[in-house]
Amino acid sequence: MAYCSQCGVELEESVSECPLCNYKVPEDLVKSDTQNFSAFPEAINAYERQQYVTRNKILYTYSMIVIAGALIALTLNFITDSSTDLFKYIMVCLITSVIILFLLLGYIKKIERIIVGLGITAIVMSLVLDGIDGKLLWSVYYALPMIFYSTLVAFFVSKKYSKSAYTNHFIFIPVYICIALAMILPVTELVIALNTRHRFYMSWSIISTISLLAFSGIVAGLYYKMPAYIKERLLRLFHV
Amino acid sequence: MSKKQTPWFRLDNAGKLYPSIATSRVSTVYRITAVLKMAVDPKLLQEALNATAKNFPLFNVKLRKGVFWFYFEHTNDVPTVHRDRYFPCTTTSIKGNQPMPYKVMYFNNRIHLEMSHAIADGGGGLAFLKDLLSNYYDVMRNIEPALNMVSESASEDAFQKYYQKKIPNPPKVEKAYHFPFKLIENGEYRVTDGILHADELKTLSKKYGTTQTKILLCLYFEAIQDYIEENRIKTNKPVIINTPVNLRSLFPSETLRNFFISITPGIDLRLGHYSREELIGYLDHYFAICLNEKYLKRYIARNIRNERFWHIRLIPLVLKNLIIPIVYNYYGESSYTSSISNLGPIRITEPYGEIIERLAVLPPPSEGNIIKGVVANYGNLTTITFGSLTDNHIIEKKFFEKLRKEGLKIKIETNYSK
User: Fold this and answer.
1) Is the ipTM of this complex over 0.85?
2) Residues B247 and B393 placed together within one structural domain of the fold
3) Is A48 on the interface with B (CB under 8 A)?
4) Is residue B245 within 8 Å of residue B291, measured between CB atoms?
5) Tens digit of each residue's pLDDT (9 = 90 or more) over A74-91
6) Which chain A residue shows the shortest CA-CA distance from B389?
7) What residue in A sits closest to B192 (Cα-Cα)?
8) In this complex, do B412 and A18 lie within 8 Å of one another by their Cβ atoms?
9) Where are the domains of chain A?
């Protein structure tokens, strides 16, 4: 029998650290050949396994559809007049859709990496689609700044959410999404205004940003109720 | 020529809820473990299970979907025993194409029974496991297992039996404090077993002039209180611990299906620090108020009344499956900080008990109440099992530290130790 020298509880003989007080059991006292008497197996995550199988099925099925679509497009391209760039556009979109599906299916664990992946895919797709006719225009002036900024915002907001104390409270997911949108929309309008009006101009994005922030505040406030000091301050300001 | 109809039956009052709320994280499946004195032989266990399945036709069912409610349909299939490979309480899904609402597994010297709460509570599961263990004992000794089919009354819906129309609803429960710990990956479940001598626990409860359930509840309240105070957490919500009560002791019934309600002792830390004497005094009075027929009848009446509302009955099952999880989360899970259930002393008739070292019960995982505990007592060993959906084990640690400080010897077994 093995006992923890610090807190005195009895431990399994194969354990190298006391689960109660984290006391490290001296290495020579840990028995590694006690598998036959251990209480729990090296557990497999059934949910993860099931999810992996489902993910593979979805990706495989979609890839088959994409290959079929590409073959049909290729055949039509040979049969009909091949002077148009339609085939190229179709091929770029099909390949991009497979990459996006791969990223969204969660093969990559960390959400930040998925966001960066989606950003890079969107930038590359925009550049390739724009460059098919030999000129790079909208992808550089519109798509590049918008995608870059949106990816940056999504990256930091998701990082902030995963580090926050509210990750168990799923009501905060729409709250964080609204905050991210509230940050993205003004820049989107700004990029459009700078390219079309050639000057700083903002209108609808201010209204949407205020609405989104108000919605986030109300949802979070209703969920957690207002902190006592805010209640008191509001009461002081608005008492009748 | 008339086609033979497969017999079916309705889910009981408590059971109606569980299939609708079941997900990978809220599996509504509990596990009862029998730790034997020798390694388990899977072939013999299968033979024993074949005999037990015949004795419990009530559990040999498949969950089917009706237009308005789920229902159970009888089947002649007998499940196969499996080696335990997955995280506990996470793989018995009765929603899919699983043949039964229960599963029997083995690992080294352990027999596990995982049962869905949709069909039975701990009392029903325990009766099934006891029969399985006695049949296992028989087949080990080349004795033909006896056919002891459970009586008709074992399948009664005792909630319906004791329902009285004109009884007021119980008081509403406040929203409770919840642990701010991060959830682990979907499909995983952490288990902490604390094994102690029953006589030492009995001496401890006698020292404080109370019962074992109340002293354990008191120490659990203390552990949570210490955590909140040490971390200077400001909360305006009370700490409420859900304590299931087996209604069979107050309302005579032989049912093996669900027949329990939960009482909810709680402390509000805004009122100040609670000493051990204050907690024990509070729990003594709270239990005295709650554990009587008159008080509990109100819970039975409320539950049945909710089920019998015509507008609830007429909602299609597809919509019920969407609404029930939200309602359950709002009115059920949000009203408890954690849960401790005491199954009390479990007795197995001799000579069958001689192959068993101890019994343990693992509560179902729950996203709303990420740490839950069950106390099971067999022979001179009491096992306190905590199931948790977080990697932060500070509450369990504090609880067992308190028992250690009282001089009790404890053995700790976990499925997450390095």
Assistant:
1) no
2) yes
3) yes
4) yes
5) 898 888 866 778 888 999
6) A168
7) A19
8) yes
9) 1-43, 164-240
Q: Is B34 on the interface with A (CB under 8 A)?
A: no
Choosing from B94, B129, B151, the residue where a domain stops is B151
Count CB atoms within 10 A of the CB of residue B166: 5
Q: Judging by DSSP bridges, how do beta strands B410-414 and A10-11 pair with one another?
A: parallel
For B375, the 3-state DSSP assignment is strand
| Confidence band for A138, pLDDT divided at 50, 70 and 90 | very high
pLDDT of residue B224: 96
Chain B, window 74-103: residues with a beta carbon less than 8 angstroms from a chain A beta carbon: 83-88, 90-91
In B, minimum Cα distance to A17 occurs at B418
How confident is the model at residue A228, as a pLDDT? 63
Confidence of residue A109 (pLDDT cuts 50, 70, 90): confident
- Residue B227 shares a structural domain with residue B145: no
Q: What is the dihedral of CA B72, B77, B80, B85, to 10 degrees?
A: -30
Considering only CB atoms, which chain B residues are within 8 Å of A47? Answer: 24, 90, 185-188
Q: Rounded to the nearest 5 degrees, what angle is found at the Cα of B354, between the Cα atoms of B200 and B342?
A: 45
Cβ of B417 under 8 Å from any chain A Cβ? Answer: yes
B14 lies in the same domain as B122:
yes
d(CA B183, CA B341): 22
pLDDT the model gives residue B106: 95
The three-state DSSP-derived secondary structure of B191-239 is: EEEEEEEHHHHHHHHHHCCCCHHHHHHHHHHHHHHHHHHHCCCCCCCCE
Q: What range defines the domain where residue B62 resides?
A: 8-151
Confidence of residue A115 (pLDDT cuts 50, 70, 90): very high
Residue B185: name the closest of A25, A51, A177 by CA: A51
Residues of B in contact with A46 (CB under 8 A): 86-87, 90-91, 187
Say whether B90 and A39 touch across the interface (CB within 8 A). no
